[in-house]
Amino acid sequence: MAGMSNEVRKNIRAWGASADPELNQKTKAMFASLIDPPSGVTEALDIAYGDNPRQKLDVYRVEDGRKNKTIVVYIPGGGFTGGDKRQDPVFFGNVGRFFARHGFVGVCANYRLAPEFQWPAASQDIDNAVKWIKANAERFGGDAKKVVVFGHSAGAAHVASYLFDPDIRGGDKVIAGVLASGMYALRPGEVRANVARYFGDDEATFERRSALTHVGGFKVPVFVALSEFDPAYLAAPAFEMARALTLRDKKAPPIVRLDDHNHFSSMCTFGTSDTAFSAPALRFIAANGG
Questions:
Q1: 128-157 core/surface letters (b: 16 or more CB in 10 A; e: else)
Q2: d(CA 31, CA 136)
Q3: 1 and 9 Cβ atoms separated by less than 8 Å
Q4: Among 217, 156, 215, which residue's Cα sits nearest to residue 181?
Q5: Among candidate residues 106, 150, 124, the one with its CA nearest the CA of residue 54
Q6: DSSP string of 213-226?
Q7: Is the Cβ–Cβ distance between 70 and 145 less than 8 Å?
Q8: DSSP-derived secondary structure for 165-181
Q9: Measured between alpha carbons, how far is 16 from 262 in angstroms, rounded to an integer?
Q10: Binning pLDDT at 50, 70 and 90, where does residue 243 land?
Q11: How far apart are CA 58 and CA 108, in angstroms?
């Protein structure tokens, strides 16, 4: 684990592979003191991009006079029924501030949640958030033509649907996507209860509602990430997505396995000395027009 202590590495390995809320809390508590302080970044919080209370986003930027910056939009996880862009003073402002400090406009966006709002509501929200961001890019120093969407866990599932669903077609609207530790296909016997609350449990709909089904119809560049200690049901889909992108592009996509990380620690590293995830993410964005 580059830049991190042996104690952090030891704890993550000892805790093992899980996506349980208890592990989320322990991991974030361990990383909170390692995040760079928030100084130097201007924050505009809880900006509405729709009428629902969940349809809000935060914008992070450095006021350096530069214009036409690439905009990186982060979509957090939460098991389809929870999660928040700013669940505490540290996370996930650490992601927005990280990108702001590296010459981008950082955005963290919420979306409507299951069971009240089901598929494809969250991906439609990403679409509406991106539309708002493009319409208002200039006021934040951003370039409306250079937007990257980045999702983790359930957020990655929503971003994948946004990018590849033939009715939303986000892959035609952004320059790139980053998918981390998400679920991209629905299969009989493998849909967990929280997933069914969003996607439904009608097996006849699974193929249509699986982002993986539609990858071949879009050329948008995608970077795939997973953690060594992701639970299997969230690690295996990364390889399925990489396979689909390989068949689409006739070459392997950028993919990284984050050694000594669990499902939650990967996003906790943004703004720390551990650059195992953030460095290749930055390289990918730069290589694709960012």
A1: ebbebbbeebeebbbbeebbbbbbbbbbbb
A2: 33
A3: yes
A4: 156
A5: 124
A6: GGGGG----EEEEE
A7: no
A8: -TTT-GGGTSSEEEEES
A9: 7
A10: very high
A11: 5
pLDDT at 1 exceeding the cut of 70: no
Contact 94, 270 (CB under 8 A): yes
**Nearest of 115, 98, 116 to residue 107 by alpha carbon:** 98
> Could you tell me where the beta strands, DSSP code E, fall in 77-219?
105-109, 142-152, 176-180
- Burial class of 85 by CB neighbour count within 10 A (0 to 12, 13 to 18, 19+): buried
- What single-letter DSSP state applies at residue 205? G
- pTM of the model as a whole: 0.97
Distance, first Cα to last Cα, the chain: 26
Fold adopted by 6-287: Rossmann fold (3.40.50)
Give the domain ranges of the chain.
Answer: 6-287
Per-residue model confidence as pLDDT tens digits over 129-170: 999 999 999 999 999 999 999 999 999 999 999 999 999 999
- The rounded distance, in Å, linking the Cα atoms of 122 and 154 is 10
Beta strands in the chain (DSSP E): 42-48, 56-61, 69-75, 105-109, 142-152, 176-180, 222-229, 255-262
d(CA 268, CA 266): 5
CB atoms within 10 A of CB 56: 20
Show Cβ contacts of residue 157 under 8 Å, excluding neighbours closer than 6 positions: 80, 151, 182, 183, 184, 211
